Amino acid sequence: MHNAEREHVLGEISDCEAIERYPEITLLCALASSKEAMAQLCDSGGLEALSLVAGKGELSAIAALLEVCKIDPKMVINVDAHVSALHVISIDSDSVSPATKRLL
Fold first, then answer.
1. Contacts of 29 (CB under 8 A, 6+ apart)
2. For residue 40, what is the DSSP state?
3. CB burial class (10 A; 0-12, 13-18, 19+) of residue 22?
4. Could you give the angle at which helices 46-55 and 3-10 cross, rounded to 10 degrees?
5. CB 57 within 8 A of CB 93
6. How far apart, in whole angstroms, are the C-alpha atoms of residue 97 and residue 78?
7. pLDDT of residue 15
């Protein structure tokens, strides 16, 4: 996903505002962590949403994308979720948590 699409879907999020505060994000990442729910999530556009959240540096979303990669890497590539991971890698390293850096 590109920055314009991210901002359109997620809105403008300031640096001091944590994305994980939103209950929708917590629910999305929780569903993505369940292998049973993953197929339905992918079928209903949840993987695209997960990609948007991962692009903001949310560790649980990035971890969920990693789990999807273990199942079928094509699913991640088809929704450009790999671009979200690259986005996190390429942003200012001070704004990315050490845990996220280790995961990537």
1. 20, 50, 53, 58, 60, 61, 64
2. H
3. middle
4. 110
5. no
6. 27
7. 45
CA–CA distance, 34 with 27 (Å, rounded to integer): 11
Angle between helices 81-90 and 46-55 (to 10 degrees): 10
Tens digits of pLDDT across the chain (104 residues): 455 555 555 555 554 456 667 888 888 888 887 878 877 888 888 889 988 888 888 888 888 888 888 888 888 888 888 888 777 777 655 655 666 556 55
Task: Show the tokens assigned to 32.
Answer: 């993505």
Instruction: Give the separation between CA 9 and CA 18, rounded to whole angstroms.
Output: 16
